[in-house]
Design a protein that fits this description.
7-stranded mixed sheet, mainly beta, 3 helices, disordered N terminus, 13 strands, 40% strand
Length: 230
C-alpha cells in the first residue's frame, strides 16, 4: 500500500468520524449578534442597542423597604448560520438545527471597579448557567429573538451595595449559548459581552394610582406610564 493511499484512507476515516457526532467547534455557527432596541410602544425596532442602563434604585424592583432585586432583560438576536443538509444515515433533514439548553453568564467591571467594595467586586467570580429550551433552525435567512434576563436579581441585589457610587460603574454581562445539534453534536455560541451602565435613582417615574410603567421599567430610558385601564 502506497503512502498516498494510506493518506487518502486516513483522511476518509477522519471525515467519517466527524460526521458521527462530537463537538461543533466553530463558535460562529450559532451566533449572538446583538441586543434589539425597543421603541416607546414596546415594539422591536430594526436597531441594535449598543449598551444598556440599569437603575439599581428603581422602586419597581423592590418588594419591601430594602428588599430589592434589580434585573436587566435583553432581546438577543440569534442566528444559526449552518445550512440545512440531509443526513444520509438517518434521513434526517434537520441535522444542523440547534437545541439550546442553557446560557452561561458571568460578569466583569468595564468601568468603575475601584468604586466597588470587595463584596461587590466578588460578582466577577459569579458564574451560572440558566436553563433554556429553544430550537434555532438551520438554513433560515431570518434572525431569531431570544428574551433573556442576563443580569438576574441575585446579581442586581449585590450591585445595590454601590448605592450612589453606581453612577460611575459599567458592568459587562458576558453570555454564551450552549446546546447540541439535532444530529448529536455539542455546540457553543460566541461569547457576547453587553455593557450595562448603572445608576442610582435616574429612571424612577411616578404614575397615577393603578397605572403601571410600560415596557421594561427600570432599564434603558425613563419610562412613560401606560394608559389607565377602564
Amino acid at each position: 500500500m502506497t503512502r498516498l493511499t494510506i493518506a487518502v484512507l486516513a483522511a476518509g476515516l477522519l471525515i467519517v468520524s466527524l460526521g458521527m457526532g462530537g463537538c461543533v467547534d466553530n463558535n460562529r455557527s450559532l451566533t449572538i449578534m446583538g441586543n434589539k432596541m425597543v421603541d416607546d410602544s414596546c415594539s422591536m425596532t430594526e436597531f441594535y442597542l449598543l449598551s444598556g442602563l440599569l437603575d439599581l434604585d428603581y422602586t419597581g424592583f423592590c418588594y419591601s423597604a430594602g428588599d430589592c432585586e434589580p434585573y436587566y432583560q435583553t432581546s438577543l438576536i440569534i442566528r444559526n448560520a449552518m445550512q440545512e443538509t440531509e443526513d444520509c444515515d438517518t434521513c434526517n433533514l434537520h441535522t444542523w438545527d440547534v437545541m439550546v439548553e442553557g446560557i452561561e453568564l458571568h460578569y466583569r467591571f468595564v468601568e468603575g471597579r475601584d468604586f466597588a467594595s470587595a463584596d461587590v467586586q466578588a460578582i466577577e467570580d459569579w458564574e451560572d448557567e440558566l436553563p433554556l429550551s429553544v430550537v434555532f433552525e438551520a438554513g433560515s435567512s431570518e434572525n431569531k429573538i431570544l428574551g433573556v434576563v442576563v443580569l438576574p436579581g441575585a446579581v442586581g441585589e449585590q450591585l445595590r451595595l454601590l448605592q450612589e457610587r453606581a453612577n460611575d460603574v459599567v458592568i459587562g454581562s458576558s453570555m454564551r449559548l450552549v446546546g447540541s445539534t439535532l444530529g448529536g453534536s455539542r455546540i457553543e455560541s460566541n461569547e457576547f459581552t453587553f455593557p450595562i451602565r448603572l445608576c442610582w435613582g435616574c429612571l424612577n417615574v411616578t404614575c397615577p394610582a393603578g397605572v403601571e410603567p410600560k415596557c421594561y421599567p427600570g432599564q434603558d430610558s425613563p419610562q412613560s406610564c401606560s394608559e389607565e385601564s377602564n
